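input
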Amino acid sequence: MKRLFFCLMAMTSVLMLSAQSIYDFKVKDDVGKEVSLSDYKGKVLLIVNTATRCGFTPQYKELEALYEKYAKDGFEILDFPCNQFGQQAPGTIQEIHQFCTANFNINFPQFDKIEVNGDNAHPLYVWLKSQKGFGGFDVADERGKMMDGMLRRQDAEYDKKSDIKWNFTKFLVNRDGQVVKRYEPTDKMSDVEADVLMEANPVLSNIMTRRSVRKYLDKPVEHEKLEVVVRAGINAPSGMNRQPWIVRVVEDQKLIAEVTEIYKQENAEQVNRDKDFKNMFRNAPNLICVCTPANGGGELDAGLLGENIMLAAQSMGLGTCCLGGPVRWLVASEKAKFFIDRLDIPADYKLNYIIAIGYPDEQPAAKPRDASKVKYIK
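output
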């Protein structure tokens, strides 16, 4: 029996470690039918472990309101009842489902009861916890302070573990299957809704998922797609509609290779440190060069243009990275003058920045943003 137990544990570990995304997992629905989470590919998911006799059970009402509001935008709530916290989810899944429909009129899918912690934790939850660990309770909030005190009495170092702490812990998964946030049961549902909106709304989601890409496939971007992203760029706001920028799109692979050879000669030590180095523009196959008046001005308008280009590229499955370092070298290097000449930049303009663009060969994680720098004046 012990041997069988360890074999099962090993199989669970292998399944969890081999999983690359949430779509690799299968779960059982409320009638015992196996469901692949790949069925939810392309949707925004909120995954929650629930209980019917918990102080947080009224959250079902808020969850249903959230579901009704954003389901039309491709949002789904996946409900997994769990009896591990205070034995507050008794009964069969059918009894639980009947309770939830009778008391909260829920319409989002409920799945079979599972365990989320311990040796019998469902592989889905093992993976979810590996993606987003416990971030702590807000002890300035009364409920958060209560939960922290209760759990710390049981385990003084409970906050050092990624385990699910209580009922109604939630994980937000974006359309690409990435876990973007974890919420504890005491977190405000208004904060959850704000994040759901950011992921479910196509425009906001595009903004939130754009990252600077520094690894690209060896595949040039089609001319037609470059035309589209540049058109999006030049339709950015411009003061008095002056449109002070000029744009040069480099599709000539030979030109990029030739200037890179000069760069390698003048920056050999830096190039040798980068084992993945292919060209001086973060290895991108195409470039969008943005120029502004040489005597100054136009920088704000050019920045708006660049943001439009990068967001348009993101929406089309392309990656971008805004580059300043290569510009400084191109302007300073006499041997690189031929590259600037090929761009055919008017004498009264200067190269301001370059956007590397191509098909991404990586999915960089989001870096934290400091929300404390925002102040609302009321």
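quick obs: The beta strands are 26-28, 34-36, 44-50, 75-81, 170-173, 179-183, 246-250, 286-293, 319-323, 349-358.
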